[in-house]
Amino acid sequence: MTETKYVTSGGLAFTEVRDMKKLGKYARKGWLLESFAPFGYRLRKGEPQDLIYSVDYQEAADADYVSLFEEAGWKKVCSTDTDGFHIFSAPPGTRPIYTDQASLMERYEREQKMTGKTALPLLIVTLVCLFLRSVSLNDWIPNILGQIGLIAGLVSLVLLIFPGLPYLSYSIRLNRYRSGKKHI
């Protein structure tokens, strides 16, 4: 029997609550979260535990940041290397990391800003490259530049999906909250 297991994620920007519940179910079966993995999580076989999981975003996570959560009963489980996501675990009944809508909204604003910093340059590159392609069709610039623009535009469009869709998801959540239509 293998000691590790990979489970997929729906993407923290889209299925955060569902993912955290899923990790809790696995923990009760003895599969404990070990780390983030590409498009999911890596679990390690251990003793079954009744745990709840929660995610937070903080780019500059220092020892004070982690100790703040530990004092509240949360244990840091893993973090991403590049984008500041951290998953914490705690026994059921532990006070949630975010207890009010205002602090949760601040978190989503931080995440929106972080994904926007990556999405905006990729969007600009995509639009410029596709503009080059359309201009080359009118023979205003050499066709080879249009071909290069098309290829580069398609590549940047594919890359844009990864920060662009989460950015849109956070924007929709924030707009719903601000309009009072839905709680986050």
From TrEMBL:
The chain crosses the membrane at residues 119-136, 148-168. Pfam families: DUF2812. Keywords: Membrane, Transmembrane, Transmembrane helix. This is DUF2812 domain-containing protein. It comes from Paenibacillus paeoniae.
